[in-house]
Specification:
By secondary structure, this protein is α/β, with parallel strands linked by helices. The chain has a single domain, classed as 2-Layer Sandwich (Nucleotidyltransferase, domain 5), CATH 3.30.420.10. It has eight helices and seven strands, in the order ββααβααβαβββααα. The strands form two sheets. A five-stranded mixed sheet has the order 3-2-1-4-7. Strands 5-6 form a two-stranded antiparallel ribbon. Helix 1 runs antiparallel to helix 2 and helix 4 runs parallel beside helix 5. The longest helix has 24 residues.
């Protein structure tokens, strides 16, 4: 079986802590884009060259939040140019912090849950759904290589454990829940009315941490999305944030995909679970 490698560059902005930690913002956002492995070195070269022309050192760790307004505008123009050249799109997932805490539960016995990991799981489901089309069309296995900037080692370990359950489901593999070091319960989902699992190949998913000019691109995506949604929330405090209405006017809107349009908002399960006003 052939194997195709797709890179998934991601970054988060806003809240990302544990379910029992004090929130600093009202929401957490994760944004990312998919790119073929053979395009990665070319994109790396182009973004480094573009940043250098803006008098920004591509070798240093850059943050959109650390740039002034003029620099930010020029960086956004650079990202637009590169996304057009490489025909790239991005998408995001967003969680209301209070709704996440309500979803998880805050009893003393409740194990701490990572909002950062939940954000990754939500956006990963979208990424894998897109990659399923590649498997079905080309009869190939797909390795999805997630790339992010700095992630705490404990959170990274939890992320791998959490997303492995999604990958196992899509690969038709049973998940194991360990009761002790040697005892476990196996589970699987069957009899789905609509089965999203690929028929012609399998998934492999890995995540690694790096600081590069390309991870700065995902930093720009998450930062601009977070800032845009925070502004939207001021006038629309009770509306879901993963909709076309919420993302309207985003500085990179032309490259944004997979937002719920008004006619599809009833299908917005993530919005219902992690949107505003959730109460157990």
């Amino acid at each position: 079986m052939n194997k195709t490698t797709i890179y998934f560059f991601i970054d988060e902005s806003g809240d990302k802590g544990y379910s029992n930690s004090r929130p600093f913002h009202e929401i957490g956002v994760i944004a990312g884009f998919l790119i073929n492995d053979w395009d990665v070195p070319i994109l790396q070269e182009k973004i480094e060259s573009g940043l250098s022309k803006l008098n920004l050192d591509p070798i240093k760790k850059l943050h959109m939040s650390g740039l002034d307004k003029t620099q930010q505008a020029k960086v956004i123009d650079l990202i637009k140019e590169l996304f057009k050249k490489f025909d790239l799109k991005f998408f995001y997932s967003v969680i209301y912090t209070s709704s996440y805490a309500s979803f998880v539960g805050l009893s003393p016995e409740q194990q701490k849950e990572s909002m950062h990991s939940q954000l990754l799981q939500n956006i990963l489901i979208t990424a894998l759904s897109l990659c399923t089309r590649i498997i079905e069309k080309f009869n190939t296995d797909v390795k999805l290589q997630i790339v992010s900037d700095n992630i705490d080692s404990g959170v990274l370990k939890k992320m791998k454990k959490d997303f492995s359950r999604i990958v196992n489901f899509l690969n038709g593999t049973r998940n194991r829940t360990y009761i002790t070091k040697t005892e476990y319960i196996e589970s699987e989902i069957t009899n789905l009315s609509h089965d999203p699992r690929p028929k012609n190949g399998k998934f492999e998913v890995d995540i690694r941490v790096e600081n590069s000019a390309i991870t700065f691109i995902s930093d720009v995506l998450s930062y601009t999305t977070f800032q845009h949604l925070i502004k939207f929330m001021q006038d629309n405090p009770t509306m879901d944030l993963n909709t076309s209405k919420a993302s309207s006017g985003h500085p990179l809107e032309e490259f944004l995909m997979l937002q719920f349009t008004p006619d599809l908002e009833e299908m917005n399960l993530i919005g219902k679970i992690f949107g505003p006003g959730r109460k157990n």
